[in-house]
């Protein structure tokens, strides 16, 4: 009896295996957190080999360009990390990490989206900003980012992925379509580079200084409902950019931006363009 049960089980397993059904390993928060923590270890040590579990065929983009992870990348520069925060997206199997280095040899603010397939990192998209980038001031970024509460939202109060994504999209859409209704929170604060639109008080607003006539396109999302966060990597009219939002009860609470100016042909090219876009004279 025991024997026949075992062989029945075995043959059932073989049938499942033979049918080509590939069990995808579960993408858990623990798994994603361990991998995202390995990114911090790699950036701290300046050793890309510490980034795990990395697929041998992983694609690496730095500031929206194809690049080598092991030669000349951000991860090859040992960096003192003063502050970091992860978003974990178990639905897409992806992570977003914000990294602030304000007190090391050179200041950096870095945003990283990672995408996983079959329990391996298959794509790393890293934006690295430093002195000279849009409103860059790592001391300011650290000061404000570390005061904000991006903590876990009680389950009963959580928004759906759709609501969180729609809030971020509405903010991005209003740059070219002023008729879009954005769910502004009160208070709401924007950390744009190292500059804060508020002072951490109840009257902070983020519906200020929004340019017009700018297309925010090619959006790539990482969403973590447990903290109401959506990270959007996008092309800010051609400039590599990250917008990250914290959404509470359907409304925008915090906005963080990282905008890379030190690309394009010639230093400051992006900056002049970003300034014109900020003024609205496109
Ligand atoms: C990176 O390289 C791939 C393959 O050569 C190419 O298809 C893609 O357009 C490149 N991407 C960027 C951002 O340059
Ligand atoms: C950078 O931010 C810090 C902290 O908010 C501020 O004290 C400092 O004046 C800022 N530096 C510049 C150059 O704006």
Shape: globular
CATH class value of the largest domain: Alpha Beta
Provide the number of structural domains: 2
Strand content: 25-35%
The name of the CATH topology of the largest domain is Nuclear Transport Factor 2, Chain: A
Radius of gyration: 21 Å
Specify the biggest β-sheet.
6 strands, mixed
Give the mean pLDDT.
Answer: 90
Query: Could you name the ranges where pLDDT drops below 50 across 5 or more consecutive residues?
Result: 1-20
- The N- and C-terminal alpha carbons lie at a distance of 79 Å
Distinct small molecules: 2-acetamido-2-deoxy-beta-D-glucopyranose
Q: What is the H/E string?
A: HHEEEEEEHHEEEEEEH
Number of helices: 5
Strand order of the largest sheet: 2-1-6-5-4-3
CATH architecture call of the largest domain: Roll
Topology:
Elements: H1 2-18, H2 29-45, E1 54-62, E2 65-66, E3 83-89, E4 94-101, E5 108-117, E6 120-129, H3 138-145, H4 161-173, E7 184-192, E8 195-196, E9 216-224, E10 229-236, E11 239-248, E12 251-259, H5 269-279
Parallel strand pairs: 1-6, 7-12
Antiparallel strand pairs: 1-2, 3-4, 4-5, 5-6, 7-8, 9-10, 10-11, 11-12
Bound molecules: 2-acetamido-2-deoxy-beta-D-glucopyranose (2 copies).
